[in-house]
């Protein structure tokens, strides 16, 4: 499987987290659409099917992640 560059993954994770906050604050259709787009890209980039799994996979692929660290599961 091809793996996305860590800089791309970090950017996608940061975008998704920011958009999730924005969506919680105002819930606009534009923010929701962008959030869905970023979620889709995260899933494709990590070879997963849902955004929660994609976020965990992306974080585990970032430099400094420890495979035995399960604290990411509560994020």
TrEMBL record:
Q: Which domain of life is it from?
A: Bacteria
Q: What is this protein called?
A: DUF5133 domain-containing protein
């Amino acid at each position: 499987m091809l793996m996305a560059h860590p800089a791309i993954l970090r950017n996608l994770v940061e975008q998704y987290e920011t958009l999730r906050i924005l969506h919680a604050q105002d819930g606009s259709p534009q923010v929701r659409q962008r959030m869905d787009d970023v979620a889709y890209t995260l899933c494709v980039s990590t070879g997963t099917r849902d955004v929660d799994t994609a976020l965990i996979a992306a974080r585990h692929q970032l430099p400094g992640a420890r495979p035995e660290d399960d604290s990411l599961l509560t994020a």
